[in-house]
Each structure stands twice: as structure tokens, then as C-alpha cells.
Amino acid sequence: ADSIQSKMIGFVSVPLPHSKLSSASAAAVSKRSVSCQQGSAAPSQLRFGHFRGLLNVAKLPPTLRSVKSASAAFRNLSAGSRATSQGFHSFTPLKMVRKESTMLDLETDIIPFKLEDAISGETITVSKESLTKAGAKGLLVMFVCNHCPFVVHIRDKLVELCNEYVAKGIQVVAVNSNSIVTHPQDGPENMAKLGKDMAFAFPYVFDATQEVAKAYRAACTPDFYVFDAAGALAYRGQFDDARPSKDTPVTGASLRAALDDVLAGRKVVDMQRPSIGCNIKWTPGSEPDYF
After folding, report:
1. Please, which residues have CB within 8 angstroms of residue 132's CB and are 6 or more apart in sequence?
2. How far apart are CA 15 and CA 200, in angstroms?
3. What is the DSSP string of 172-191?
4. Which of 158, 229, 231, 256 has an alpha carbon 20 to 30 Å from 30's alpha carbon atom?
5. Is the torsion defined by CA of 122, 125, 129, 135 positive or negative?
6. pTM summary value
7. Confidence at 96, pLDDT banded by 50, 70, 90
8. Interhelix angle for 149-167 vs 253-263, to 10°?
């Protein structure tokens, strides 16, 4: 496990006794970014999520120390193998890279696309012409998804902000370009549920071919693009300074300032910092050249 970096993620399932973990055991696991999942028809399993630093197996409760036998499997991460060995059930590596926005050139015209809204089933058209026809004062295109911890971290405030600016005349389109080959949980059905549960006032479209993400050179979730009323790119970058690993409050300050400038017909003058998040989950074999 000593070769694991924060840019990689793997999942290990370890059979545990059928009995529930004690509160002390659960607490020890929780402190190490590990979650316990109880199954009704199968033994409890230990599932590793995001690794930040090393896991000190020696300090785990005795019932969990069989995890130590899984450590050798992590050496197979770079080879992309699936391993089975003593003491654990299975190992499936997934590449999760922390990426920054590619920072598309400012003044770039709206890159047009048509995609289906997972919430309403309607076809959503994004273009300079559709922006003008709608009488919108600007356009926000954002690449997000359901599961990414960087998106989840800001999601409540993001939806609140987007709904607010829709009411002010900004057209907002959320795009999910994640591959359902590797991440079926990000598919249209779950997109629709999330959008309805959180009362999105904007469409949430599915980029099944990933061509829209590539056209925008989108690299991470979340990734934001703000166009002015004339259809020129005025801002691209972060939502704010908040990150899952920081205690910085989630405010949406960077995106809010850019949208306010666009509404006022001003040039966005604030320093534009790249967004940071998990990489878009490209369909294996079709990754873009900038990945």
C-alpha cells in the first residue's frame, strides 16, 4: 500500500464476520476514510474509498487486520489487474486522476451542441442562435456528475446559485460526460432522480458520446464555462476556493462574480483560477489527447 498516491483509487472488498462491527471498530475505520457496508444476504464487507496517505493497519481493530493481506494487491494498480488472494474477496482498480481545467481561450464562441435533458426528456440546444432567441443574458455550461466528491462537496450551494441566476436571465446547462461503461451510477436514470430531488431549475444533459466534453476541452468535474450575451467565453475556471480536503466555506464566490459581471455587461476582471476535480471518466480507449 506504500505506493498508493492521492491520484489513484482502488476498491478492496474484505470478508468480515457476519456480526456487526463494534462502535469502536467503526470509529477506527471511519477515521481512516474507510466505510463499512452491511449486506443482507452476504457477509459484511470493508470497502476502501479515497486514500490520502497511508493506512496504519496495525492500529485497526483485530477483526479488520485481515486487510493487511490485501496490501500486496495495490502493487497491481499500475498494471490494471484484478487480483484475488488470501483474506480478501476481490480487487478492482480504477484510475481517478485529480485534474485542472484546461482553460479554454477567452472570447471563444459558444461551442454548439444538442443533447437530451435527463430530467424532462426534452432536447436541449446550446448555440449562439438559441441564446439570442431565448433572450438570455448569458450562458453557463458546467460539466458535473452525480458521484464525484468534488461536485458533491459544492452541490447544495451550486444548485442554489444556478437556480438563482436562471431567475436572473442566465441560461444554465449541466452536462454529464462520464462513461456509463465505467460509472453506471452516473447514467441518465440517476441523473434524472438527482435533478428532481434537488429541484434543478436547469437541464441536466447526458453526453453519451463524450464529444461535447472534448469540444470544450473539459477535463474535470466540476468544470465551468460562462459565455456573455453575445456568445463569447467570458470566464472559465473554479466555483470557488473550496475543496473536499479544505475547511474553506463553499460560497461560489468565483463563479458568482463572473456571472454578475456578465449580467452587468462588464468584462470579467477577477483572476481566473482553474477548477480542480476528478477527471471526466472517459470511455476506455477514447480518452482525448489532453488527458
Report:
1. 231
2. 40
3. EEEEE---TTT-GGGSHHHH
4. 158
5. positive
6. 0.70
7. low
8. 30
